[in-house]
Amino acid sequence: MSPTFPCPPVPVPQAGLWQCQREAEAVAGLMQQNMLRALERDGRLRDLDTRAQSLRAMSESFSRSSRAVALQRPHRSRRRWAAAAAGTGLVLIVLLVLVLVLVLRRDPGPVPAPPGATGPPPAPAEPPR
């Protein structure tokens, strides 16, 4: 079996030549369209590559700044704990002082009579009017 060609190698009449030429022009048109599409794709790929490089640079910058923030974070945490501890200690001291003042100012109530005394204690003298 011999392969079939769109344009046979044997001499052909004029109509066959025109048909081969039209097919060749159609193929050339398709090839031009394919080349244009390939050039468009190349432009889009270059744009994507530029954007990827930009994103890579931004991610490296973000990584550096996040590391710097992470290094500063323990210092802030220690300051917060120190401030909280100082505030708590101050509140406890104020409460202790208030409790002591209230306990010491409390009215002791009736004074017990000394041993051996009899009868009710004398009434206090009224001040003159």
From TrEMBL:
Gene Ontology biological process terms from the UniProt entry: Golgi to plasma membrane protein transport
Keyword entries, A-Z: Coiled coil, Membrane, Transmembrane, Transmembrane helix
Keyword tRNA-binding: no
GO cellular component, one term: plasma membrane
Protein origin, superkingdom: Eukaryota
Region (Disordered): 109-129
Domain V-SNARE coiled-coil homology: 16-78
Pfam families recorded: Synaptobrevin
Compartments, record wording: Endomembrane system
Residues annotated as transmembrane: 81-104
Membrane topology according to the record: Single-pass type IV membrane protein
Similarity annotation: Belongs to the synaptobrevin family.
Protein name: V-SNARE coiled-coil homology domain-containing protein
Species in which this protein is naturally found: Strigops habroptila
Gene for this chain: LOC115602937
